[in-house]
Amino acid sequence: MYRPQNLRIPGPTFVPQTVLAASARPMINHRGPEFAALLAALTRALQDFLRTQGDVFLLTASGSGAMEAAVANTLSSGDKALVFINGAFGERFFAICKAYGIDARRVDVPLGRAVDPELVREELAKEKTKDGAKAVLLQHNETSTGVLNPLKEIAQVVREADKLLIVDSVSGAGACELDIDEWGIDVCVTASQKAWGAPPGISMITMSERAWKAYERSNLPKAYFDLMTYKAALEKGATPATPAVSVVIALQESLRLMAEEGLESILRRHRDLARATRRGLAAVNLSLFADEAHASPAVTSFRPPTRVDARNLIRVLRDDYDTIVAGGQGKLEGQLVRVGHMGFVTMTDMVAFFSALELALRDFNQPVESGQAIAAALRSYADSSAQPAKPGARITSRIDAVGSRR
Asked: How many domains would you assign to the chain?
């Protein structure tokens, strides 16, 4: 018998029915005028959501593909770079740099902690020589630990040092405050299956004027990920290779839904859900892994009860209570549970999660009363003074400008 699941992993996220329906529309010519109009409107809308006037390109690739493109298009073999690592995806940035021959120096931050802007300042002070680091790479939202790095403050430090700033916001953009131009981010990547609420298959990458100047100096090999070919193709209303057309159409619909809610309301909802999640977990004596001061609005990580392997708790939630959550990655496997609340998520979804969690904890003989976590989460959410923001008219109009065949 089919049983619907409560998908609470930090990506791929829940995809609304209208977005799923959009992905099933008849195929269109990716070299025709309909796709050209779609691509142009999507690009402008993404500029609005990401708060940038710089270039935005859609890549048919995962977020990791966009991370690779960010490195390949801005750095050169032998360039020095600082990679700040506070989780598995910082490790991925470092691995990409090493694969391309970048002289990357890793700066490790304890897992569960955020990158401190003062640490960035201290490390950059060591790179003041002519052959010092050319770029700083880090995560905006470290999905593997549920930590939100203070990107605005870090970006200011990097700007003062006149270094290139390359940011992975795969799970941050659309859920966490982000202002690419105001903060001075040179390259930023995100992906369709995270807070954007579309199926996997499309990643997005931004390029500033500084990034394009770095591109001109870059000698790294690039073919499929050569962003200049994307820039040239976009001017003609196309992509350089066949894109995941159905995902692009789905992304159009998800952006339309997001525009109806409004960006400020979306960000506020994510913050409120994250806070409610933390309060619910605390009510059943589950300890948060991430530092509370830098807890992510998109994903919350917590430790299972003493003597309970996280993998077993995850299995019971899945097999017995149809609730899908994620585990720890790398060194944290078996030690963490990660619950996603990014994208098109409501408090109703989180109440269902806590209902399943309470039942699962009781299966492990934990002293949990029915409704204990739910009540705490609901109180937190109800206590929020947030009022729905008005939809961003400019964003809405740009999405509505896309021809729709619904």
From this structure: 2
Which residues span the domain enclosing 362?
6-11+262-383
Q: Which tokens belong to 122? A: 């201290």
State the DSSP string of 340-390. Answer: E--SS--HHHHHHHHHHHHHHHHHTT----TTHHHHHHHHHHHH----PPP
- Residue 181 phi/psi, 5-degree rounding, is -75, -45
CATH code at 91? Answer: 3.40.640.10
CA–CA distance, 237 with 12 (Å, rounded to integer): 28
Cis ω for the linkage preceding 12 (within 30 of 0): yes
Q: How far apart are CA 48 and CA 44, in angstroms?
A: 6
Alpha helix ranges (H) inside 51-150: 63-72, 88-99, 117-125
At residue 107, φ and ψ (nearest 5 deg) are: -120, 105
**pTM of the predicted protein model:** 0.94
Distance separating the N- and C-terminal Cα atoms of the chain = 31
Q: Are residues 140 and 276 in the same domain?
A: no
Instruction: Tell whether 389 is covered by a domain.
Output: no
pLDDT along the chain (406 residues), means of 10: 88 98 98 98 98 99 99 98 98 98 98 99 92 97 99 99 98 99 99 99 99 98 98 98 99 98 98 98 98 96 97 98 97 97 98 99 97 98 66 45 39
Q: What gap in Å lies between CA 298 and CA 190, rounded to an integer?
A: 13
Do 192 and 321 lie in one domain? The reply is no
Same domain, 344 and 356: yes
Q: Are 111 and 168 in contact (CB under 8 A)?
A: no
